[in-house]
Amino acid sequence: MSHATKDKSKLLGRIRRIRGQAEAVERALGAEIGCADVLMLVASMRGAINGLTAELMEDHIRYHVADPDHDSDADRARGAAELIEVVRTYLK
Amino acid sequence: MSHATKDKSKLLGRIRRIRGQAEAVERALGAEIGCADVLMLVASMRGAINGLTAELMEDHIRYHVADPDHDSDADRARGAAELIEVVRTYLK
Amino acid sequence: MSHATKDKSKLLGRIRRIRGQAEAVERALGAEIGCADVLMLVASMRGAINGLTAELMEDHIRYHVADPDHDSDADRARGAAELIEVVRTYLK
Amino acid sequence: MSHATKDKSKLLGRIRRIRGQAEAVERALGAEIGCADVLMLVASMRGAINGLTAELMEDHIRYHVADPDHDSDADRARGAAELIEVVRTYLK
C-alpha cells in the first residue's frame, strides 16, 4: 500500500499478531486444550481483525477520500472526521 | 482438543486457511496493493473466522453439552438441534 | 415463551427499549439531526440487540438444553456453563 | 436529516420495518412461541439493522464526504466508490 510508513508499520504489527494468534489456535487444536478455551482464542482473534479493519478503513478515508486534519473544505473535513468516529464505534 | 479425529482435521484445515489469509494480508500490506483490496482480503478472513467459530461452537454443543443425534432425552436433543441452527444463522 | 416469569420480564424490558430506540431513529430521520448522530443511535440499537440475543441464547441453553446449576451430569453442566460464557464473549 | 427526499423515504421504510420486527419479537415473547423461533426473529432484525447501517453510511459518504458520481477530483471519487463497496461488504 502507498500509505505513510508509520501507518504501514502499525498495520504490519497488527496483522503479524493476528497471524501469531492463528498459529496459537492451530497448536491449541492439536493439543489437549479444551474446546471453550480454543473458542476464547478465536474470539480474541476476531477482536484483533475488527481493530485492523477499523484502522485500514480510517487510513483509506484519510489518504484516499478526505483527511479531516488537512482538507481545505471544512464541511468535507467534518464529514470525514464523523465517518472515522462512526467506523471506530461500529468496529470496536 | 478431544473431539473426533474427522472433526479435528476439518477444524485444522479451516485455521490453516485463515493463517494463509493472514500471510496474504501481510504480503499485500508490503506490496503496492490498493487499500480497498486489502480491506476485501480482511473481510474474507473475517468470514472464515465466523465459519470456524460456528463449527467450534457446534462441536462444543455436540461433544460437551448434548448431541442432537444421540441424546436419550428427546427434549434436550431438540433443544440442542435448535441451538446449533441458531448459532449457524448468527455466524453465517 | 415458556420460560420463568422473571426471565421473561427482563427480556420484555429489553425488547421494549429496542422498540423505543427504533422510534427514536425514526424521529431523528424526520428531524434535522445529523447523519452521524443517527448512525450513533443505530449503533446503540445494534448493541442492545446483541445483548438481547445473548440473553435469549443463555435462556435457551438453560431451559431447553442443560442448566449448568442443576444438571445431574457434571460434565454436561460444565459444558453448558462454558458455552454460556462463550456466547456472552461473542455477543458483548 | 438533510439528505435527498428519495433517500430519506427509503431510510424511513427500513426503520419502520425494524420497529415492526421489534413489535413482533415483543408479541412472540408474550405468546407461546418457541425460544429458537424468537431467536430467528431477532436474527432477521439484526440483518435489517446492518442493512440500515450500510445505507446510512453510504449516504453519509455521498452527501457529507465525497460523491463518487459527481466529485470533480477523480482520485477522491474513486476512493469514495471503493469505500462504499467496502462498507457494503462488511455489513451485508
How much helix is in the residues of chain A? Answer: over 70%
**Overall tally of structural domains of chain A:** 1
Report the biggest beta sheet of chain A as strand number plus sense, adding barrel if it closes: none
The second-level CATH architecture of chain A is Up-down Bundle
Head-to-tail CA distance between termini of chain A: 24 Å
CATH names the topology of chain A as: Methane Monooxygenase Hydroxylase, Chain G, domain 1
Largest interface, C-beta closer than 8 angstroms, per-chain residues: A-B, 39 and 39 residues
**CATH class annotation of chain A:** Mainly Alpha
What would you report as the Rg of chain A, rounded to the nearest angstrom? Answer: 17 Å
Identify the quaternary structure here: homotetramer
Structural class of chain A: mainly alpha
CATH superfamily of chain A: Metal-sensitive repressor, helix protomer
In total, the number of strands of chain A is 0
Low-confidence stretches of chain A: none
Helix and strand element order of chain A: HHH
Kindly estimate the percentage of residues of chain A that lie in beta strands according to DSSP.
Answer: under 5%
Principal-axes geometry of chain A comes out as: elongated
Instruction: Please tell me the overall pLDDT of chain A.
Output: 94
